[in-house]
Amino acid sequence: MTDKPTLTTTGGAPVPDNQNSLTAGPRGPVLMQDYQLIEKLAHQNRERIAERVVHAKGWGAHGTLTIENDISKYTKAKVLQPGTKTEMIARFSTVAGEAGAADAERDVRGFSLKFYTEEGNWDLVGNNTPVFFVRDAYKFPDFIHTQKRHPKTNLRSPTAMWDFWSLSPESLHQVTILFSDRGLPVGVRNMNGYGSHTYSLINDNNERFWVKFHFKTQQGHQHWTNAEAEQVIGKTRESTQEDLFYAIEKGDFPKWNMQIQVMPETDADLTPYNPFDLTKVWPHGDYPLIDVGTLELNRNPENYFAEIEQAAFSPSNKVPGIGFSPDKMLQARVFSYADAHRHRIGTHYESLPVNEPKCPVHHYHKDGAMHFKSNGCPVDAYYEPNSFNGPVEKPDVAEPPLKITGDAARYDHREGNDDYSQPRALFNLFDDGQKSRLFSNIAAAMQGVPEEIVERQLKHFELVDPAYAAGVRTALNAS
Ligand code: NDP
Ligand code: HEM
């Protein structure tokens, strides 16, 4: 007698034998009617789904966002009202490596958050950096090609990276962060997160404010040098997964202070920089950080694949009181992610438990592969308008009109754009040790890159600060 449950087929019928295939005689061959053997092999062939085209290696956990301060004068979003506690899930990632890449690699980290609010899912799909390498989505696929493998060598190509960066001075700010200490955090608990883009907040009076979201680590910043990371990778390729998983498992829950910077809508025309340019920050001196609340991760997934690999984050998921901005990159991302999810996980990816909103969902989409949930409409209401009490729109959540001016054209985003002042402000924050590691990290990453490309890049460093170029040149000569 046993109290273990009975093994069944996926059809629910009991399986008589899970050790021996059905054969004609003890030596075989196998009979085709051994459906259970065929099903096992067929299922195995389908265990992998396409990996994310970027940010394939990831780590994640469940948690809560608690709002401690009153920012209701800026937003009516229920998730951001004082005292509100919202369940959420986070997924962190490196950008360039494939799903099996080592964790301790120098790379930007993804910082994706999905808040299951009572008004729908709000996704903030950010990074551990406040800026990005490009400012026009037209250049995003080109940039990513330089981070992935060369078509012939099948190796990553420093030449491609520095060729692109040196021809794209808007990348300087992010390149400086990437090769600074913060470009190689020991794990995700020890880094900040940023919404990076400018978004908007809308209050009860339908007034719009521009906003930047920040999540400051309470665990303190910790980084590895290149040499330390080599040692780590020699011992384990899963250093971040181990760090996050076991911290949460033992009840040492990582936390971040959520803060915002707020800009009145009309200020956008007054700042000396374009506040919708993703290669720029808003200086804290101009737009100080405002405390909002605390993000805490406190529960490991029970099933990594179901809850983290199948998690589908998209900047298009927003709720009333939170909106987009004219940022060209954000506009493209609003399209790109849902498209990626339909390809990677399927038409009904939003019905999967990890992605499913925790509020009522009613829509008129119909059918499609893996349609396993009702769309929440009465049976006769499968089109709109209808006379059968089907769901209807809610005009009071419409955003205030946004004034747009200008002629449709392809404007040169590099013309008259200052790509050097903000990297300079960052460079000036570094102490001598940080500067010296910046120089040597860059020199190490430039090994084998043709001289003319290196010289082109050094000219950009020179325009940030002559000491920046000189430091990298000295490090190159020493390597
Ligand atoms: P502040 O002195 O007010 O802020 C400096 C910021 O730099 C802090 O947020 C700090 O983060 C962060 N920082 C410190 N070291 C590093 C590093 N190695 N890599 C990335 N960030 C770092 O100055 P400003 O607001 O005037 O900004 C000056 C420069 O600081 C900017 O040009 C930008 O490069 C960088 N920065 C600015 C941010 C902003 O939103 N204004 C955000 C992040 C960076 P922490 O508080 O966690 O220590
Ligand atoms: C993942 C596109 C810029 C952060 C992805 C994915 C795509 C994509 C297609 C894979 C999604 C999936 O399969 O699940 C783009 C495009 C961009 C852009 C077209 C520019 C136009 C950015 C920026 C940030 C960012 C600026 C951060 C500020 C992320 C993160 C992920 C991701 C964190 C991983 C999401 C997860 O954890 O599942 N991006 N991206 N991306 N991107 Fe972007």
From TrEMBL:
Residues 1-26 are annotated as: Disordered. Residues 8-392 form the Catalase core domain. Residues 1-23 have a biased composition (Polar residues). InterPro entries: Catalase (IPR018028), Catalase_3 (IPR040333), Catalase_clade1/3 (IPR024711), Catalase_core (IPR011614), Catalase_haem_BS (IPR002226), Catalase_immune_responsive (IPR010582), Catalase_sf (IPR020835). The active site is at H55, N127. Its cofactor is heme. It comes from the Bacteria. It is an enzyme of class 1 (oxidoreductase). This is catalase. It comes from Gimesia algae.
